[in-house]
Amino acid sequence: PVWGKPYIGSDYLVGLSLPCSMQICDEEGNFYGVTGLDISFNKFAKSLLNTGNVGHFVIESALIDVDGRIIVSSNSEFLKNDFDWSQHKQGGEMQMKFFATPKIRRTILNTKYGIISVNELPYGEVIYIYAQLKSLNWVCIQKIDYDIYLQVYRRRLLMQKAEDFKRLKVQSVK
User: Fold this and answer.
1) CA dist 45 to 71, 106, 129, 140, Å?
2) Measuring CA to CA, which of 17, 18, 56, 112 is 20 to 30 A from 125?
């Protein structure tokens, strides 16, 4: 499929539309035409961004294209409730910003999946976890505050140990 840039449709109250098209060919490869559809960008973005890691340690969840431009981000101004759609041109494509710094972006695009650890103000250590979505030719990225993540992980570990201890205590009483 070929994904276009998000644009403001005829009803700006719906939010952005995300166009997609694909050629139609028979089994021998003979071209018959093109089919296309527009997806509600905001609904797509919200459902996508509410999957995977969703804890308060996640600074940003994003999808980027092959050029490193942000398709959707949890930090996007377009997803904010107070965004004024009427101020933007109907039918116009939205300007897509580049993700992160050039060095981080190049590493993500060149390796397709992995983990990068960097120090970023004001967070301290930040982890970028990413993987290519081959069918869309996009990369899914989560930017995580490592210190907050460790606090959550340690809390879960302590709770698990307390639960294990409670089970042992109950078994020894019987």
Assistant:
1) 9, 24, 18, 12
2) 112
The string of DSSP codes covering 103-115 is HHHHHHHHHSEEE
Which pLDDT tens digit goes with each residue over 69-117? Answer: 988 888 877 666 666 666 655 556 667 889 999 999 999 999 989 999 9
CB under 8 Å to 99, separation ≥6 — which residues?
Answer: 62, 64, 68, 69, 70, 73, 105, 108, 141
pTM, full prediction: 0.71
Helix (H, G, I), strand (E, B) or coil at 163: helix
CB 147 within 8 A of CB 140: no
More confident site: 101 or 160: 101
Give the confidence band of 43 by pLDDT, cuts at 50, 70, 90.
confident
* Cα separation, 144 vs 63, whole angstroms: 15
Please state, in angstroms and as integers, the Cα–Cα distance from residue 127 to each residue in 19, 58, 70, 115, 145, following that order.
Answer: 31, 10, 18, 7, 7
| Strand locations in 11-152 (E) | 16-25, 31-40, 58-64, 70-73, 113-120, 124-133, 138-145
Strand, helix or coil at 33?
strand
